User: What shape does this take?
Amino acid sequence: MNEVGIDGVEIRTGKLQLDLAETFAPAQGEDPGKYTKGLGLRASSLPDVYEDIVTMGANAAHRLMERKGVDLEDIGRIDVATESAFDKSKPVSTYVAGCLEQVFAGDLHHANKGERKFACVSGTQALDDAFNWIRAGRSRGRKALVIATDTALYERDDPGEATQGAGAVAMLIDEDPDVASFSTLQGYGSADETDFLKPNQQFPSVDGKRSMQVYLARMREALEDLETAGADTHPDNFALIPFHTPFPGMVKKAAVLGYRHCIRGTDIEAEIADEIGRQPRPEAFDDGEAYLDALKEYTDKLAETTQYAEWYERTVAPTLGISEHVGNWYTGSVHIARAAGLKAAAEDARDLTGQQMLVASYGSGAQAEIHAETIQPGWADEISQLSIDEQIQNRYDLSFEEYEQIHDVHNHDAETDLEPLTTPDGEFVFDGWGRMGERKYTYVE
Ligand code: HMG
Assistant: This one.
């Protein structure tokens, strides 16, 4: 049976940036180090007046399809994963299809379209749906277009405001993929949680500190479930480990816990035992609290070992290279982490063909999903065609006053009239409202 997976990927960032150290920190009266060192973020991407989840998704898909020589008749399915949808009935994928039909010959009437929701994990769920559709023999040789797109805004002055972001990732899922093939092994950690939710509201209600605990707990369950499914999670088995990245500091916390779990009982644990001892085992403690204290002490020492530092620099650090400049893109976040890791590896001329990535997705509410992917021979060529560095470089740098206005422009409850801060060029733009309250889009040459 042919491999199925990601044949191509394209990333589209919002065209504005909020510099967290230079612009946001002084306005908040905070030390810039809180954002740059504590959270690990330098800037947030935000959409200009004429950008939204549809334009970013359609612009990413357009460039991807042109690059890969894909026509509308080649696409059998379009799934959009988002938690920023503006319609409870008509899916965002229909708007994206309408955009693509403006620039490509033919139409997408034959394509099955839908929308996926489960906070940030829904982008990965949409990849799964595409995989299953192809593997079930229902694709008739056509490809699936999966788009993860979000405008991740928080209420002004919410602690989450520093982690905002906006952008889209478009992925083509197909047989004999160029980038990475999926495996059938998956691990889940899923529970009914109320840490981050949007009950019929645009901006999330968030219990930030709790959301971090829930992230770690569900990731741990997903890893254990993956092992139960038969995966060998020895840390040296993976060339890259892209995580859902709400901010790089969150990934740092998760990575050391994951490493501790995966080295238990392995040669690595034995090798560093002289330096920091063996991991505490619960059966050696009468008191649960004493066990947890000992575990924390071991984890702190583990984070200081050369073995951990080398593993982190090789497998995790490269995946954070885009996130730190753009913030949290919710559904797209783990997919920019995968792309960033591969991009850094290509720039370092690492030979990753045939090697494994362990992809750790997460969505609040809450569910983690972890699976392995195998890197395919075409990966470096495909990834070298990304234009994300240039896009990040060319963003318009907002003053704090402009940021406040832009936040209002995208706030569904605020009435603001603001001229665009950038000029559209060869892209889809939001072009006003139709007679039934629908959003309208045009392609600007
Ligand atoms: P906060 O409470 O304002 O920040 O918001 P803090 O005071 O905890 O500081 C952050 C870190 O900076 C801390 O590091 C500080 O010590 C450090 P830590 O102790 O945790 O290691 N710090 C400094 N470091 C250096 N120099 C300084 C300095 N000052 C402080 N001067 C919080 C933090 C994450 C709670 C907030 O941003 C938030 O609420 N974010 C939104 C929720 C979130 O991102 N949760 C992450 C897990 S849930 C998830 O990933 C799902 C999500 O993507 C949604 C979805 O699935 O749809 C969010």
Notes: Residues 31, 33-34, 37-39, 83, 119-120, 159-160, 162-163, 196, 206, 208-209, 211-212, 215, 244, 246, 249-250, 328, 330, 362-364 surround 3-hydroxy-3-methylglutaryl-coenzyme A (CB under 6 Å).
